Amino acid sequence: MKRLLLLLLIFLLATGSFALRGKIKQLDKEITSRFEGRRWELPARIYGRPLELYVGRNLTKKDLLRELELLDYRAAQDMNTPGTYNIQGPHISIHCRAFPFADGKRAGKTITITITNRHIRSLIDQADGQDIALFRLEPLQIAAIYPRDNEDRLLIRLQDTPPLLVNILLLTEDSRFYHHIGIRPLAILRALLANIRAGKTVQGGSTLTQQLVKNFFLTSEQSLQRKIQEALMALLLEYHYSKDEILETYLNEIYLGQAGKRAIHGFATASRFYFGRNLDELTADQLALLVGLAK
Question: Which CATH fold topology does 48-144 show?
Answer without folding.
Answer: Penicillin-binding protein 1b fold (3.30.2060)
